[in-house]
Design goal:
helicase, hydrolase, six-stranded parallel sheet, ATP binding, Rossmann fold, 662 residues, seven-stranded mixed sheet, DNA binding, alpha/beta
Length: 662
């Protein structure tokens, strides 16, 4: 049955029902139009528009009247935000429970591809799937080679400034896993043969990297039209969230399974085309928003019109009638949106001035949403003097770029212990803390006993417990270490770390890797070196934010400023945001001075070359609820009469100027 046969037309009464059910404010016409729509449609929704809530509301309406017990709604995204929102908003309702069980399906695009395409194809080939995990797969590939083969291939790749870890299966023919890809080595060379042996052996054993599921998915779809037809019959309605972040390999599978021009299904794509900040190797064949019916929500609950007006010129995809801020306007003289002007050669005073502004204008209750300083470039490499400030490190030398990666690992065990302790203070359970310490213990074992043949799964706590339950004495030491690191009133001291905890950790690592009596390698001892905890006093969201938190103290009052890349903050809400000047081919903020001034420059169609940077600025500018700041070099304002003219234009556009050079 088609969607029209499964669900009666959605009425205003249905919309009013879901508003009451979810406790929503009255919805305007653009939002009601989306909820009533029964067609294939692309919805472009601005930051802070309540997009995820609207998606859940629409799903609730559809599920309320759903007639089939075998066909369902398929909800796909890049994260589990939709499922979490359903559980939060509708978990206690009957309609919410319906959405979370068969016949409906809510998952990531990867999860869908793995379950309905990759896994069935592997089973058809007699291969048992062991893991879709980059780390586990790299270990499996390493096991396929002798020490000499691995060392030879690694050395050959390093000479060409390449990495073995970057290799991916390009063909579902596992005897020729690279397909036609040119890896820089001819097929007759020993390096090429080692690579093929490694990838082929691991694949046949059931190990795959995260993004390789799409190769397997296409392999099943290539077997015939019946596969896609069966999935369309199973899911006559599909909703894809955060569509602007969909990568070509993901979109390729979705387009084959759920083509938008198929009259038998309804494809609802939701996202914000102005937040497409993640790199794509090739453009999507079916761009978003695409031809056909389009809807737009241009009003944000997050910020007021002052911030909306400042951010609007950076919408690379023009917003009809402009971005609208629905938050109540601020009282005169309160929380000014400020450009902090600093000397070209010294950016180190910017964070303190930002901290003073935050303490002066934002109450402590407001600051709980988070105070951030973010930049387009946060990794300092290949630095030249004329690029200053190039990256976040130039504002605070202690900033570490690697912590924003999802694969972040503490630099030392002690650093991991400090972060785990913060987790324990922040979270309702100790699961994150224990998992982090277990991963540090596993890493210690690899460094201290490189000759061990023991292989641990990436769910480290489960692996450690499983291994140590056969060694009761070591298991008791493990529990003692957890207690001494996480659950004592005061933080671990250097003396206690060196004298008491470190010896136990080495014994534990030896037990974990069956290396009792083996002398620990120097790298293991270096990993156990003591280092003090970061000075931040408030716990952030992850290990990176706990480290990259700058503390500004002004007498008895103070504020934690969390530093991060713009990419890492996409989708988040801040109380205050400072966008720092960085260098991307040219100085990032300086190039946008004409747009910041408003006027004619803000109405011109930008060139394609400006797309990425405009979108980064737009994402950064639309994070805060109360205060938006920029850090700009003195020379960005110009000199003499030109400087004064630019300053007047910026103030007319809604900016306050805080000049640290005066």
């Amino acid at each position: 049955m088609t969607l029209g046969q499964l669900v009666a037309p959605i009425t205003d009464a249905d919309v009013d029902w879901v508003i009451e059910l979810m406790g929503l404010e009255a919805l305007d016409e653009p939002r009601r139009n989306f909820l009533r729509s029964m067609d294939t449609v692309d919805l472009a929704a601005c930051p802070g528009s309540g997009k995820t809530t609207l998606v859940v509301a629409k799903l609730a309406i559809l599920a309320r009247h759903w007639k089939s017990r075998m066909q369902g709604i398929c909800v796909l995204s890049h994260t589990n935000a939709a499922r979490e929102e359903i559980e939060k908003r509708l978990g206690g309702t009957e309609v919410g429970q319906r959405l979370l069980r068969f016949p409906h399906y809510i998952d990531t695009i990867h999860g869908f591809t793995s379950r309905f395409l990759a896994s069935p194809w592997l089973r058809s080939k007699g291969i048992s799937l062991q893991a879709i995990d980059d780390e586990a797969t790299q270990k499996a590939r390493r096991r396929e080679l002798t020490y000499r083969e691995h060392l030879g291939a690694q050395s050959a790749f390093e000479k060409k400034f390449k990495s073995l870890h970057s290799l991916r299966i390009r063909s579902a023919d596992f005897d020729q896993p690279l397909g036609a890809e040119d890896i820089g080595f001819a097929p007759h060379t020993a390096t090429y043969k080692s690579v093929v042996k490694s990838l082929s052996g691991a694949a046949k054993a059931g190990y795959f990297c995260f993004d390789e599921v799409f190769v397997l998915g296409h392999a099943l779809l290539d077997q015939g039209e019946s596969v896609g037809a069966a999935l369309r019959l199973r899911f006559p309605c599909v909703l894809i969230d955060e569509m602007q972040d969909t990568q070509p390999d993901q979109a390729g599978v979705l387009q084959r399974v759920f083509p938008r021009d198929d009259p038998g299904i309804r494809v609802i794509r939701v996202g914000d085309p102005n937040q497409e900040i993640f790199e794509k190797n090739t453009p999507l064949l079916d761009p978003f928003p695409g031809p056909g019916r389009q809807l737009e929500i241009a009003s944000s609950f997050r910020f007021d019109q002052a911030i909306a007006s400042i951010a609007n010129p950076f919408a690379y995809v023009p917003i009809t009638n402009g971005l609208i801020g629905l938050r109540a306007p601020r009282a005169p003289g309160r929380t000014p949106n400020t450009i902090i002007v600093f000397p070209d050669e010294d950016a180190t005073g910017v964070l303190d001035e930002y901290g003073k502004l935050v303490l002066k204008h934002l109450p402590a209750e407001t600051r709980k949403a988070g105070v951030y300083a973010i930049g387009a470039v946060h990794r300092l490499e290949n630095y030249k003097a004329n690029q200053y400030p190039k990256a976040l490190e130039h504002y605070w030398p202690s900033y570490r770029y690697d912590t924003t990666k999802t694969s972040f690992k503490p630099r030392t065990f002690a650093e991991g212990a400090h972060i785990a302790r913060r987790y324990a203070m922040r979270d309702p359970t100790a699961s994150s803390s224990v998992e982090l310490l277990a991963s540090c213990l596993a890493n210690l074992g690899l460094l201290a006993f490189p000759g061990s043949q023991v292989q641990l799964r990436s769910r480290y706590q489960a692996s450690v417990v499983q291994k140590l339950t056969t060694k009761p004495k070591a298991f008791a030491w493990y529990r003692e270490c957890l207690q001494q690191i996480l659950f004592v009133p005061s933080a671990v001291t250097e003396q206690h770390w060196v004298k008491v905890i470190t010896p136990k950790l080495l014994l534990l690592a030896a037990a974990l890797y069956d290396a009792e009596g083996v002398t620990a390698d120097l790298q293991g001892h270096q990993y156990l070196a003591w280092e003090p905890a970061a000075t931040a006093t408030e716990a952030g969201e992850g290990g990176g934010s706990l480290i990259n938190t700058y503390r500004f103290q002004d007498g008895a009052d103070g504020v934690d400023i969390q530093m991060s890349s713009i990419h890492s903050e996409k989708g988040k809400t801040h109380a205050a945001t400072l966008i720092l000047e960085t260098f991307r081919k040219t100085h990032f903020i300086q190039k946008f001075m004409p747009l910041l001034e408003g006027g004619k420059a803000a109405t011109k169609r930008p060139p394609d070359s400006a797309k990425k940077d405009m979108m980064l600025m737009y994402v950064g500018m639309t994070r805060p609820t109360h205060m938006l700041c920029l850090a700009a070099r003195q020379s960005s304002l110009g000199e003499g009469a030109a400087r004064e003219k630019r300053r007047v234009a910026l103030e007319t556009a809604g900016w306050s100027i805080l000049d640290l050079t005066e």
